């Protein structure tokens, strides 16, 4: 398998955690989102992923974008150790949390959106930061309420699931932008716990060879 990653991409970070957790090897390919005007825009990468986003996974004939689809592929290819609960209702709730993060939080603060705010829309850095923190706060408030009753060490009891794979990179991103995490004690507790697990440590942005 080849995996196209960027150290600070929270979508790539989700998949790196899954690869490490399942002990699956991948040939890492690095796409620098800022260098050369954004290497994701170079034609070689664009032909692999017309969305010009990371991550992309290539496994034989299969070229797959979207981190959640890639997580699903890895789960099918190597079911153990599982990252989804066996209980159907719980597994669906895990999926809903992944969508809360991947659809409703992360895209609003993604690089291309921020570049559009400060480029064509001419927002100041301070206005950009306000935008970022506003959407993080909205998303995290809902997640805190949703998870406070069911979280243990992880979002769903003590089992590491896709929800944690999405949450921890999103909190990493929030910390980058100076978000105060004190209103979200459950999310913060899960973050602290997951940071002690080997798969999360190995997948962390600062551990990647393309980190600078
Ligand atoms: O400033 C940079 O290093 C460029 C890009 C990113 O971090 C990736 C993102 O767009 C944020 C994210 O995925 O959470």
UniProtKB/TrEMBL annotation:
Gene3D superfamilies: 1.20.1050.10, Glutaredoxin. Pfam families: GST_N. GO terms for biological process: glutathione metabolic process; L-phenylalanine catabolic process. Residues 87-212 form the GST C-terminal domain. The keyword Ion transport does not apply. The keyword Isomerase applies. It comes from the Bacteria. Keywords: Isomerase. Its EC number is 5.2.1.2. GO terms for cellular component: cytoplasm. Belongs to the GST superfamily. Zeta family. NCBIfam families: maiA. This is Maleylacetoacetate isomerase. The gene is maiA.
């Amino acid at each position: 398998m080849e995996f196209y990653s960027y150290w600070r991409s929270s979508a790539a970070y989700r998949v790196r955690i899954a690869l490490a957790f399942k002990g699956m090897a991948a040939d890492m390919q690095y796409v620098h989102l800022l260098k050369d005007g954004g290497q994701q825009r170079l034609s070689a990468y664009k032909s692999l992923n017309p969305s010009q986003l990371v991550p992309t996974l290539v496994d034989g004939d299969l070229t797959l974008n979207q981190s959640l689809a890639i997580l699903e592929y890895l789960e099918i290819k190597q079911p153990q150790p599982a990252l989804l609960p066996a209980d159907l209702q719980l597994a669906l709730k895990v999926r809903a949390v992944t969508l809360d993060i991947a659809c409703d939080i992360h895209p609003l603060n993604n690089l291309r959106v921020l570049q559009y705010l400060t480029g064509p829309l001419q927002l100041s850095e301070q206005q950009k930061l306000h935008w970022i923190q506003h959407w993080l706060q909205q998303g995290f408030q809902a997640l805190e309420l949703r998870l406070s009753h069911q979280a243990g060490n992880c979002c769903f009891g003590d089992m590491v699931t896709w929800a944690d794979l999405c949450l921890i990179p999103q909190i990493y991103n929030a910390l980058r932008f100076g978000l105060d995490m004190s209103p979200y004690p459950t999310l913060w507790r899960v973050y602290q716990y997951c940071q002690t697990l080997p798969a999360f440590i190995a997948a962390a942005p600062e551990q990647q060879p393309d980190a600078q």
